[in-house]
Write the structure tokens for this entry.
Amino acid sequence: MGRLTQFLLGALIGIGSYSLVRVPQHEHDFFNDLAASSYDKDTVLIPLPDMGFDPTEVAVPWKILRDLGHTIVFATPSGSPSSCDPIVLEGPFLMQPSNEVKHFYKQMISSPEFIKPLSYSSLKVQDYDGLIIPGGHHPNMSSLLDNSVIQEKVAEFWALKRPVGAICHGTLLLARSKDSSGKSLFHDKSTTSVPSWLESQAYAITKYVYGLDNYQLSTTNNSYVEPEIRHALDTHEQYFSGPVDLLAPLLPGSRTSHTHAFVHRDRNYLSARFWGDAYLFALTFARMLNERHSP
């Protein structure tokens, strides 16, 4: 199972406080449905930090969208290749992603688009049909989330009303990027993010079970992501944490099974909680791209 089992202790800790909820979702091969479509193919921008992103949250959307014929463009602060959080990729066994995701990651870092990313400052946002913002809990994610240049570029793209997707800590970039009124870009949207019940378990296991210091809490208030996201919204009712499903980290989604995955969509904006939702997130985002070309 790889790193999926890292949440097992957290699930046992939380089971007294949270009820187990299962999300019934029809399971069929969304990928084959999308691959069979004849819509135009698009160009999707994925900004990365200079180091520290979550490998699953980048490699899975990259693989699925590219296999569907879309073009991926990466961007980093300086235009140099990025790298994922090494502790997540090759650290303690229980923290590692699945073998499939590791394979995707190896393919991705060998691709021309990953080897030669653009710099944030060189981006012309009108050139892209979609934007995906991945997450990661490494302290160096601040080079993405707190970077004023990419915040301005994201705000420009947001104004185009084209598909935008953010997963896990990636939602913080939208919260910290401002519109012309000074409010967060998605202040009037509904969204999810990594919920506090899930992040607290991941943080506790990373820090206290493994004794690692690579889990960075929110740089704004040294707290979890959910409170900052809620604060950026007009009302608390716009935040959707998803079901408290303690099996979600142990049984993540795949191309064909989404029983424990959760994503939330508000018009052209898609959000997901964590790496366990990455497949459903990527497939739903692909569907959103297709809808732009439908009659």
